[in-house]
Design brief:
By secondary structure, the chain is an alpha/beta fold. Helix content is 44%, strand content 13%. The chain has 11 helices and 9 strands. It has a 6-stranded mixed beta sheet with strand order 1-2-3-4-6-9, sandwiched between helices. The protein has a 3-stranded mixed beta sheet with strand order 5-7-8. 43% of the residues are buried. The structure holds zinc ion. The site of zinc ion has 4 residues, from helix 10.
Length: 301
């Protein structure tokens, strides 16, 4: 064995999926509805779900009958974020990738997370943000950390009154989730408050900040989203696509892409720092300890 190969490690993949359908897909009246379907785990996003989302979006783009895409979560919550602790956590698994970063699963050191998150987090989110058809996130309940990334890549966000938004990863020693759009979604001072405190931002405040388009009572959420989608679906496909392209390009000129690339480097310094300290890339945290800290925070408020 060459010395080069010795640094490669194959990690065990202990993941056990609770469903073969982590994403549901339906089309009606020009609207594709893509539903994250792990309600038992508050739609925690594992790679299985990530690739199923990507396949569903591709199907919607390829179908000329689809004009608008709605992204929603089954159950009480939109998304609890990236899967950091369900039996279906599949970070060590190898997948047929959508981007050109190499397979992460047998890579040593910081390369493992760097390559993996290029593909499944920042790469996928940018790819979904660039879909030429309009997208609407329909958000109820929790939209936490990785869940923010899924809502933010959509063109419009409609939230129910009970929805809240939160990025608590500073507790892990990490400067925000991988798709760092915080200072574009919020102004810099509010973004600092959002990250430093890691508190829940209620839908009403997110609306005041311009982060969500509309807030409606939970019982009316679906009707509101579908009515908006139906109106958009009556517009010409190219008109919508070109409008989206223009606004996305201007977001890039405003620094979204370059800022995110820079933040991605800091994000991975944080992952590597946790590992150098022997605490792991999440700074010694897992789903349980994050929920516990979150509860304590809520009690203190
Ligand atoms: Zn990360």
């Amino acid at each position: 064995m060459s010395s080069n190969n010795e640094s490669f490690v194959q990690r065990d993949d202990p993941s056990v999926y609770e469903t073969a359908e982590p994403v549901l897909y339906a089309v009606a009246d020009g609207i594709a509805t893509v539903t994250m379907n792990r309600p038992g785990y508050n739609n925690a996003q594992n790679s299985q779900m990530t690739y199923a989302l990507d396949a569903a979006f591709k199907q919607a783009i390829d179908d000329d009958a689809v004009k608008v895409i709605v992204l929603r979560g089954a159950g009480k919550h939109f998304s609890a974020g990236h899967d950091i602790g369900t039996p279906g956590r599949d970070v060590n698994k190898s997948f047929d990738r959508a981007h050109l970063w190499w397979d992460h699963s047998n890579k040593p050191g910081a390369e493992f997370n760097y390559a993996r998150e290029q593909e499944v987090y920042i790469g996928m989110c940018r790819r979904w943000h660039e879909m030429p058809k309009p997208t609407i996130a329909m958000v109820q309940g929790a939209c936490i950390a990785g869940g923010l990334m899924l809502a933010w890549v959509c063109d419009l966000i409609v939230a129910s009154e009970d929805a809240f938004f939160q990025d608590p990863v500073v507790r892990m020693g990490i400067p925000g989730v991988e798709y760092f759009a915080h200072v574009h979604e919020l102004n810099p001072r509010i973004a600092k408050e959002f990250l430093f405190l890691g508190e829940r931002m209620p839908a009403a405040r997110a609306y005041q900040m311009g982060m969500v388009n509309r807030v409606v009572p939970a019982a009316g959420l679906e009707a509101e989203v579908m009515a908006m989608a139906a109106r958009i679906a009556s517009q010409p496909r190219m008109g919508l696509a070109l409008t989206k392209q223009v606004i996305n390009r201007i977001e890039e000129l405003q620094g979204l892409r370059a800022g995110m690339d820079m933040a991605y480097g800091y994000h991975h310094l944080a992952h590597a720092h946790g590992q150098l300290l022997g605490a792991g890339h999440l700074g010694g945290h897992d789903a349980k300890s994050m929920i516990k800290a979150n509860k304590k925070n809520a009690e203190d408020e």
